[in-house]
From TrEMBL:
The gene is amn. It comes from Rhodopila globiformis (Rhodopseudomonas globiformis). This is AMP nucleosidase. Residues 13-169 form the AMP nucleoside phosphorylase N-terminal domain. Transmembrane segments: none annotated. It comes from the Bacteria. It catalyses: AMP + H2O = D-ribose 5-phosphate + adenine.
Length: 489
């Protein structure tokens, strides 16, 4: 008879077991850290064996053929044993149950939970991060006696298709294991200035602070609207405004949030209806930040991220303030060339494209040819060099061959990251200048453009997310899945 850790479990029982085992491991290490920081003895090998992540194993060995489903996730493509380590199972409970229930009910998968061999690095069990600030124990002392973060233990081999199946070993159950997830959760706080628990499943990424300012105004209006499902706005420094707060005081509190201390400040507007709120992150200008933040956001398995920012229009028929809906990307950003080579196509996702176009029609009130005059679909070229214009003679032919209609520095990176990390993605840009036609942003015209364009652009993006909420299952499409995809989304 198998013991309690190896007995078959229902999905709810499996997540209960994961929560209990993770909580026990975290508390055991916290207790040992507190004792050692107070001058007590370090953990002995037996105690240290408790500092491990739980492992979730799935066994799928059907008597007949595997069931056929059009769903892109929550399915097994090859019979066998799958496993991954799990962190923060309480937070990820809805996601875990969403993945496990169809695997158990449709595929007959048998679930087990047991201790893994993967230790929890001690910084990941601290709530605030400064609990050991007054300890006499040095970082060297702590590293000698407690598990530490090791770069050799963190990687994206599964997401990047670099793992190799070995007979007698489990296949990966998920794209990211526990230590990779914990690594990113901690980095999110560092970069965005907000706790990772505040990040919402619908994400806007922008390269201008003015979009964030408009988002905050909209969020505060939603908090003051009795019929709105939004009930909490979180700003950098974990500054919070709640429904029912005095709006003037809430606005002052959010305005005073220390966003300028953080590399990519984020704001999160949460909902109370279970459909997921909206996060906006100011990633700044350039592909490096775009890759960095999405490497970390991806472990939260968001439903979608959209690039919402400015671009240079490359066609004479475009006007300042027109929109560009990217359906292809000429990736000259170079940052992902080793992971997703430029010759690998990064497809547009039909569900996202349709939602953005429908939202543009709703918000602008324009349809047919009138909408086409303002919303052009085409290829966006993304550079790693803001002064790409100085290489125009070298770049002209490539841009011409690609039929690109707009240029920026982030969209190609964000689309490639969405493709690579299986997060639905899209791009809606606003033409702020036309570098090939002598129409550039001068101080006076730029201010007028920003006042007119940013509010409408953000409103279109938010309306698109509202449309996408109604079809989440289709949004997580098979376009993003490999032939040896892990069962979990």
């Amino acid at each position: 008879m198998p013991d309690g850790h190896h007995s078959a479990l229902t999905p709810d029982q499996a997540v209960d077991r994961l929560e209990a085992m993770h909580a026990d491991a975290v508390q055991a290490q916290r207790d040992a850290l507190a004792r050692f920081a107070a001058g007590g003895p370090p953990p002995d090998p037996e105690e240290r064996r408790r500092f491990r992540y739980p492992e979730l194993r799935l066994v799928c060995e059907p008597n007949g053929p595997l069931p056929v489903t059009r769903r892109a996730w929550g399915k097994v493509q090859t019979p066998g044993v799958y496993a991954t380590t799990i962190t923060r199972p309480g937070f990820f409970r809805p996601y875990l149950l969403e993945q496990l229930r169809p695997l158990a009910e449709e595929f007959g998968a048998v679930l087990h939970v047991r201790p893994s061999t993967q230790e929890i690095p001690y910084p990941y069990v601290l709530d605030r991060g400064d609990e050991l600030a007054d300890s006499a124990a040095s970082a060297t002392d702590l590293a000698r006696h407690f598990p530490t973060p090791l770069l050799s233990a963190v990687g994206d081999e599964v997401a990047d298709g670099l793992w190799a199946f070995e007979e007698g070993h489990a296949r990966p159950l998920a794209l990211f294991d526990a230590v990779r997830v914990d690594y990113s959760l901690n980095r999110l706080r560092h970069y965005t200035g907000t706790h990772w628990r505040g990040v919402q499943p619908w994400i806007l990424l922008t390269n201008y602070q003015r979009y964030v300012d408009q988002f905050v105004r909209w969020g505060l209006d939603e908090l003051g609207n009795p019929g709105s499902p939004y009930d909490r706005l979180v700003a950098p420094g974990d500054t919070v405004a709640n429904r029912g707060d005095d709006l003037a005081e809430a606005a002052a509190r959010i305005a005073a949030a220390p966003w300028f201390r953080f590399q990519m400040p984020a704001y999160h507007l949460a909902r109370n209806d279970g459909q997921g709120g909206v996060t906006i992150v100011n990633i700044g200008v350039g592909p490096s930040n775009a890759k960095t933040v999405t490497d970390h956001l991806a472990v939260l398995r968001p439903h979608c991220w959209l690039m919402v920012g400015h671009c240079g229009g490359l066609r004479g028929s475009q006007a300042i303030g027109d929109y560009v809906l990217a359906h292809g990307y000429l990736r000259r950003d170079k940052i992902l060339d080793d992971l997703v080579p430029p010759e690998v196509p990064v497809p547009a996702l039909a569900e996202v494209q349709v939602a953005l176009q429908e939202a543009a029609a709703q918000v602008t009130g324009e349809h047919g040819d009138a909408l086409k005059q303002r919303l052009r679909t085409g290829t966006v070229v993304s550079y790693d060099d803001r002064n790409w214009e100085l290489r125009w003679s070298q770049e002209r032919r490539r841009i011409n061959l690609s039929r690109a209609i707009a240029v920026d520095m982030e969209s190609g990176t964000l689309a490639a990251q969405g493709y690579r990390l299986r997060v639905p993605y899209g791009t809606l840009l606003c033409v702020s200048d036309k570098p090939l036609h002598g129409e550039i942003k001068l101080p006076g015209t730029a201010s007028a453009f920003y006042q007119r364009a940013v509010g409408e652009h953000l409103t279109i993006s938010l309306a698109a997310l509202d449309l996408l909420r109604g079809g989440v299952e289709a949004l997580h499409s098979r376009k993003l899945r490999s032939f040896d995809e892990p069962p979990f989304r």
